[in-house]
Write a structure and sequence with these properties.
Elements lengths: L4 H13 L4 E6 L2 E6 L6 E3 L11 E2 L6 E2 L1 E2 L20 E5 L4 E4 L15 E2 L4 E7 L2 E6 L4 E6 L6 E2 L4 E7 L2
Parallel strand pairs: 3-6
Antiparallel strand pairs: 1-2, 2-3, 4-5, 7-14, 8-10, 8-13, 9-12, 10-11, 12-14
Amino acid sequence: MSLTAADVAEIMRLVEQSNFDELTLEMDGIKLCLRRGTPAAVVGLPGEASPGASGVSAPGTGHTAAAATASSLPQPAANTVAAPADPNVYEVASPLLGTFYRAPKPGASPFVEVGSQVEEGTVVAIIEVMKLMNTVRAGVRGTVTEILVADGALAEYGETLLRVRKAG
């Protein structure tokens, strides 16, 4: 037995409707970990570490979204953009490998622009993985200073998507 994307979506829906903050499911060599309130979800094989595996809400649905990996967990991408020297600049990294979207749907206004004020929980982008929309939150209070990935471009796991100058 294996989990399909529909199975994972149904499990996420059930977790979202429950009072649970975390679910770990292991069956037939698959491990699914869902956790509310943190950046990303990972499905892995037995014996693999599952760093920070968690669920995130898909925009407009209130559902938790997850990404799957068949053989190994993703490794952070080597950033091609130099890291900021200023410790007051926070880099929002991609929690998953997938397609980066700046808006909730085609033709809609972007979640944020350069100069936008954000709070820790502000949705700044979406990463689409296997037809599941995973929200990316700012993670810090401040002002967006740079958006480094083009709308519709592939974002690597760990790649810096945008930078936020921390409010101080």
